[in-house]
């Protein structure tokens, strides 16, 4: 099969399209023919070696965590899914013609493979962050960096639970945030005052998905670090906020957003798409950020 691999840490130029063996699913896993793969920030950070101290790479290495496609084989002990089913989920080395998934859900027919491939990591991260901050019906929550994948997912999941959401983004993405059900505000100096004005009442929780150095402002806004969480700012632990990096339940998160998407209550649009051979450009483009939606690689 064709797959993207790299044999050393470096920039996007180290990624190569190669021929390699098709993987086999272990017990509890499934193998899919990949139709599209989501591109996440962690893919480029891992490739560049930023995470080598606690997540070293064994070379040659594939890349990619999220994908959507058609099931071609199931491992022992797998139930509820069969060959030919259309699914999306998370696994390993998903920028390839075939990939193993370790957590997944059946794709709603109304959602394209390209869009579904961008759901898994944002959905799982959003669910985890909302759990840590105990966001519930009636709460007002601020999301810093709301127009990307995780922010888009967090808005819609929070809204589905009856929370009111304020999201920060560039002016160009304000209409997009409104379409998801959030109240948009600008990021930058004066954030606390703008959020307070938009809320008109206390802000109960805050999620930082951008890592833009706003944790002190978010603590001031909420009044306590106990209901502030970040997945992108390593200074968070020193400030007493929740700092969360490790995934917990991809299957549960994928099933949740599949249900929401099936009734038209969840979407993360494809903002940029690339061919498999252009995976390096896809990761580079994704790293620039400031988009409304997801960067994906489309295979078929």
Can you give a write-up of this model?
It holds the Pfam family ADH_N. GO terms for molecular function: oxidoreductase activity. Keywords: NADP. This is Zinc-binding dehydrogenase. The protein has 300 residues and is an alpha/beta fold. It folds into two domains: 149 residues, Medium-chain alcohol dehydrogenases, catalytic domain (Quinone Oxidoreductase, Chain A, domain 1, Alpha-Beta Complex), CATH 3.90.180; 121 residues, NAD(P)-binding Rossmann-like Domain (Rossmann fold, 3-Layer(aba) Sandwich). The chain has ten helices and 15 strands. Strands 3, 5, 6, 7, 14 and 15 form a six-stranded mixed sheet that branches. A six-stranded parallel sheet has the order 10-9-8-11-12-13, sandwiched between helices. The chain has a three-stranded antiparallel sheet with strand order 2-1-4, with no helix packed on it. Strand 14, helix 10 and strand 15 form a beta-alpha-beta unit. The protein is globular, with a radius of gyration of 19 Å.
Order of secondary-structure elements: EEEHEEEEHHEHEHEHEHEHEHEHE
CATH architecture of the largest domain: Alpha-Beta Complex
Superfamily at the CATH H level of the largest domain?
Answer: Medium-chain alcohol dehydrogenases, catalytic domain
Helix-residue proportion: 25-40%
């Amino acid at each position: 099969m064709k797959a993207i691999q790299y044999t050393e840490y470096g920039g996007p130029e180290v990624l190569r399209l190669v021929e390699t063996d098709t993987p086999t699913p272990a017990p509890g896993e499934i193998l899919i023919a990949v139709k599209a793969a989501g591109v996440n920030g962690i893919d480029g950070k891992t490739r560049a070696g930023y995470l080598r101290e606690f997540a070293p790479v064994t070379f040659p290495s594939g890349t990619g965590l999220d994908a959507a496609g058609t099931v071609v084989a199931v491992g022992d002990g797998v139930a509820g899914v069969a060959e030919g089913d259309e699914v999306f989920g998370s696994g390993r080395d998903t920028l390839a013609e075939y990939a193993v998934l370790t957590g997944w859900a059946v794709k709603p027919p109304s959602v394209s493979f390209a869009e579904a491939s961008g759901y898994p990591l944002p959905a799982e991260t959003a669910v985890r962050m909302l759990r840590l901050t105990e966001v519930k019906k009636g709460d007002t929550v601020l999301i810093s960096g709301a127009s990307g994948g995780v922010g888009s997912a967090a808005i819609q999941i929070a809204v589905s639970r009856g929370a009111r959401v304020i999201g920060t983004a560039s002016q160009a993405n304000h209409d997009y945030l409104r379409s998801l059900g959030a109240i948009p505000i600008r990021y930058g100096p004066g954030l606390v005052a703008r959020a307070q004005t938009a809320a008109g009442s206390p802000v109960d929780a805050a999620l930082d998905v951008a890592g833009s150095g706003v944790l002190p402002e978010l603590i001031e806004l909420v009044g306590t670090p106990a209901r502030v969480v970040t997945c992108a700012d390593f200074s968070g632990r020193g400030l007493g906020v929740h700092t969360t990096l490790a995934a917990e339940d991809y299957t549960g998160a994928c099933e949740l957003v599949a249900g929401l998407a099936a009734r038209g209550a969840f979407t993360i649009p494809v903002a940029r798409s690339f061919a498999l051979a252009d995976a390096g450009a896809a990761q580079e483009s994704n790293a620039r950020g400031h988009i409304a939606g997801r960067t994906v690689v489309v295979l078929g």
